[in-house]
Amino acid sequence: MTAEVAILNTKGIALAADSAVTLGIGKTYNTADKLFALSKYHPVGIMIYSSAGIMGIGWEIIIKSYRDFLGEKSFDKLTDYAGDFINYLAKFPYFTDGQMVDYLKDMCFEVFSDVLSWFLNDIHTEFDEKENIESSKIDAVFNSTLKTIKETMKKAEDEKQIKPDFAFIDSNTESINKMLDIVFENYELSKKQITELIGILKMYFQKCSLVSKYTGIVIGGYGEREIFPSLCEFKVSGKLGDSLIYFDYEVNQINTDHSASICPYAQTEMVHQFAKGIDPDFKDEISSKVDTILSSLAPLMKDTDNKKTEAISELLKEYMGDYIQNVYISPIVNIVECMQQSELVSMAEAMVNLTALKRHVSTDEESVGGPIDVALITKGEGFIWIKKKTQYDPHLNRDLNQNFFRS
User: What residues does each domain of the chain span?
Assistant: First the structure.
């Protein structure tokens, strides 16, 4: 996992990222690069979190390839850099058909495994402690499960749906059928059920909130015609045919009305606890317990339709939100608003260190740690490394800077 922080005000933007990377075998190394300059010549940086690669290719390779592609070209707005990077990913020449089929298979396994788990739960609910169950009844439960899943997925709220390349999915039914055989093993699926499962797969790619495997991308800095910094964040899952599966695109723009911001990414709980005065999980637990207590008191309040208890619950949550905003968030943001560039850098590094320390002294997995890379981006000086781990001795590699800026 990862802990990353961006802290912005009108003077600049500080970016900090840890170095921990956990491999699939459970081994953790503290050598990963997650923070990069996106341009050699202009004040733009990029951070990645969650996954170290996409479609079998490391993000470091892709980002540095884009940096060479970008060259001295610049854009008026930071959002234009983000858009150009997305277009570059969508047309990246090294994403092969084989890699896209492998990505489709991975997603098939994940989606179909979730369907199977849901189906088995329904089977246990329907036939627990019963014997000699007819196959037709099991089939009826499976059809009901598929219907429930589709209805649940349709209700999943997404402001903007993804537009996947359905033609690519349809052209790879053989690979999809192989994954169906692997997941459902000896269960004989009818043609209608296979059609329903493929429909669920397509809907999975459409709904942003359902995609669980992705890389978070954070691009920060300045466009040519911007005097205040901005952040663009989005998530990228993979590529299917002609469509890049990306979603949750958000922009954080500093201006005279919004002059400071603290933006944590990946493992964010310690930054939220620092800025809001309460652990997010603890806050949710309090809200849940309040609702439980109020529900148990409803009969004493003669509140048969729960209108009174719901009103009290909303009132308490509103009070808690106002208190957190007025006592914790606003004062800290007001201080950040006035910070000098060096203080932005120190605070960003401290936020990542705080998360790493929490992981180190608790029973949680130490998924945050290692050297912290820190960069400062300003309009005048551009992208500046404050702290940067290296795999080499800079004094033995004096030609690197010259090579970096070669035409």
Answer: 3-95+212-404, 97-210
Measured CA to CA, the distance from residue 336 to residue 35 in angstroms comes to: 22
Burial class (CB in 10 A: 0-12, 13-18, 19+), 177: middle
For 3-95+212-404, which CATH superfamily applies?
Aminohydrolase, N-terminal nucleophile (Ntn) domain (3.60.20.10)
Tokens of 9: 């005000």
Give the tokens for residue 190. 């009818």
**What would the pLDDT profile of 199-217 be if each residue is shown by its tens digit?**
999 988 888 777 888 999 9
Q: Which of 107, 104, 127 is nearest to 115 (CA)?
A: 107
User: 101 with 172: CB under 8 angstroms?
Assistant: yes
Kind and range of the H or E element at 116?
helix 97-127
Integer Cα distance of 337 and 205 in angstroms: 40
CB 243 within 8 A of CB 163: yes
Determine how β-strand 53-54 pairs with β-strand 230-240: unpaired
Paired with 385 in beta bridges are 375
Q: pLDDT tens for residues 325-348? A: 999 999 999 999 999 999 999 999
DSSP 363: S
Contact 35, 8 (CB under 8 A): no
For residues 51 and 214, is the Cβ–Cβ distance under 8 A? yes
Q: How many helices (H) and strands (E) does the chain have?
A: 13, 14
